Amino acid sequence: MAGQRVEVDGGIMEGVSTGPEARPVALQPRLGRRAFLSDVLALLSHPHPWQGGQILRVSTALSCLLGLPLRVQKIRAGRSTPGLRPQHLSGLEMIRDLCDGQLEGAEIGSTEIMFTPEKIKGGVHTADTKTAGSVCLLMQVSMPCVLFAASPSELRLKGGTNAEMAPQIDYTAMVFKPIVEKFGFQFNCDIKMRGYYPKGGGEVIVRMSPVRQLNPINLTDRGSVTKIYGRAFVAGVLPFKVAKDMAAAAVRCIRKEIRDLYVNIQPVQEPKDQAFGNGNGIIIIAETSTGCLFAGSSLGKRGVNADKVGIEAAEMLLANLRHGGAVDEYLQDQLIIFMALACGVSRIKTGPVTLHTQTAIHFAEQLAKAKFSVKKSEDEDDASKDTYIIECQGIGMTNPYL
Q: Do 398 and 210 meet the contact criterion of CB atoms below 8 Å apart?
């Protein structure tokens, strides 16, 4: 019997095998145990713009969880700077370390890696992007793995806490955390130091205990918006007035559409000993009567005035409230891997399904054999809206160490 390896080729995947009786093979998800099958599941490219970093995060986490050796090719092949970036490399190295695995091709700019996982262990693990690479993306790849570790874990994640092209740490703490904990686990997120583009220098410590299984979730009843609140921050040499201007502009923008709620956005000067470098930004959260959370956020850039930053975050929040879903566009894809691993049927109501979400679903189906369906919402209230129900029959992953 030949040892199975999963190959990911930059994009969408199809099962093929070698030899005259070639056929796709269903993987039996087994934590901490190598699957040995005579066929090879090769994963071929397809002309779709799949998200490079997202493919790497989802496939590596599932490889680690399921004990499947993995080869990923053509990593970020279409980008102006192809191959692994510092944040991808530090995430891969952390996954390797937390399961005592083997990792080949792991260097900046590499377009192909091979990863062979072993037993997931708890303990203290550090990942440092040494840049403003997002600590939140490091958390995305590692969190599902340590839930099925043999003992509690402490993840020391270093890089950018409020970075472009990634969730801000405030989003992770204020939106992602309370929702993902509905799967039946809890984690502590301690922001030791904030770090911004281009220097990074932030540090977050995540502590969590393993679980035996994850519960399914049902997030389909949005309810009505009951609270809107947030924080507009400045750090380093930027004047406090910038924080006040961002907050005021955001409040004015929201009031044009939502007049009957008090909008409480606090301007904040980050303490000097808790922020590295200069930065500014804003996050605004809407909470509903059923406990759903939506957010809009924006980061300041050189030459962009404070009002524009505040308005951008406000408009993002309002857009997320218009579509009728029960999760916002940035939470969708982050929930997919947990839905795939859970025991039972999970359902979430979303607005337009993002490319990141489509990518996560595709790889969760191919690697973990979870069953997903995405259908237009049949709810009367959603008739005129772009609203969908994502349903998943999870694989019921069980932690063999508990």
A: no
Instruction: Write b or e for each residue in 58-79: b if 16 or more Cβ atoms lie within 10 A of its Cβ, otherwise e.
Output: bbbbbbbbbbbbbbbbbbbeee
Active site residue 48: no
Which amino acids are annotated as binding site for ATP, given as ranges? Answer: 140, 330-334
Domain 52-220+328-395 sits in CATH at 3.65.10.20
Of 401, 335, 324, 399, nearest in space to 372 by CA: 335
Strands 345-350 and 388-393: antiparallel
pLDDT digits (tens, 9 = 90+) for 9-55: 653 333 222 222 222 223 333 333 333 222 223 332 333 445 678 89
Domain with CATH 3.30.360.20 in the chain: 225-323
CATH classification number, 225-323, choose in 3.40.50.720, 3.30.200.20, 3.30.360.20, 3.30.390.50: 3.30.360.20
Selected catalytic residue, list 88, 125, 323, 356: 356
CA-wise closest residue to 320 among 258, 383, 390, 233: 258
